[in-house]
Amino acid sequence: MPINIPDSLPASRILEQENIFVMNEARAVHQDIRPLRIAILNLMPKKIETETQLLRLLSNSPLQVDVELLLTATHASKNTPTEHLLKFYKTFDDIKDQRFDGLIITGAPVEQMRFEEVDYWPELCDIMQWSKTNVYSTFHICWGAQAGLYYHYGINKHPLESKMFGIFHHHNICPKHLLMRGFDEVFVAPHSRHTGISQEDITSEPRLELLSYSDVAGPYLIASRDNRQIFVTGHSEYDRDTLQREYTRDIDKGLAIDVPVNYFPDDDPSRTAPYQWRSHAHLLYSNWLNYFVYQSTPFDLGQL
Fold first, then answer.
1. Alpha-carbon distances of 294 from 55, 209, 298, rounded to whole Å
2. Which residues are named in the active-site annotation (predicted)?
3. Which single residue of 31, 79, 95, 104 could bond 45 by disulfide (Cβ 3.0 to 4.6 Å)?
């Protein structure tokens, strides 16, 4: 899906070098179609890295997507240049009177804290409440998925004995669900988190449907019965080297961290990890955009 983003956004140059279709603003205004409006609430510390990963997955299909980058007003980002944030990001107050076809809520490195201890939790709750009336479908990632399950359904996370860290195999248990269309029966995806969600909590909630799980990593893809809420407990958007950089960062900090599972060949950190999850990552996002946003959202967003 060609994405309409500012020409000067760093992701634009990176994606064009990867031969990914990025539509410039001048071309976008001459297309006689209603573009999909997708907001990305970026809670990750390294926002440029995360926005590039997500924009890559929102690209390369025939429809135009207009992307709005959001950050929380109640938390100061320390890992992204202030100039970048001021130029490309808006806050909830800037867009709360608008409507969007889709919203992506990213993960955040706060999963070991109680939700209520996170400084921007009240603001995030306001955004999730607003999304019920102003967004057609919301896509939650990792901690964002845990936050959404807690806020919307009262399902809490639980601490893990050790970090869920690596590439894990997942079962496609609802192959006829539109989100799973084209998925293999078994596929891999990255996880990087210290907390998890109980599979029993998901299956006992009648408003939710478990679509995919891992014998090791637990529930992976979850959808509300009306498909307005999608939850992904892992990080399909990760680059080839994201887990490697996280591993090196923790080693450099002197933290006790195991080598990522099923990641490095022969568990040797000096070797390049194969990119095993890219095709299913693209499929996941294209299925969401097609079946739960484009095919379902009203042409007039005022009807939401």
1. 17, 21, 9
2. 142, 235, 237
3. 79
Known catalytic residue: 84? no
Active-site annotation holds for 194? no
pLDDT in tens, 62-114: 668 899 999 999 988 887 888 988 899 999 999 999 999 999 999 999 999 99
Q: Model confidence at 28, in pLDDT bands (50, 70, 90)?
A: very low
CATH number at residue 150: 3.40.50.880
**pTM confidence score:** 0.88
List 123, 142, 209, 246, catalytic entry = 142
Can you tell me whether residue 35 is helix, strand or coil? coil
Residue among 217, 209, 208 at smallest CA distance from 189: 217
How many domains, the chain?
Answer: 1
Binding site: what residues are annotated? 163, 192, 249
Q: Is-catalytic flag, 174?
A: no
Distance CA 245, CA 260 (A): 11
- The label of the residue with tokens 């095709």 reads 279
Give me the pLDDT at residue 31, please.
Answer: 44
Task: List the catalytic residue out of 123, 237, 246, 280.
Answer: 237
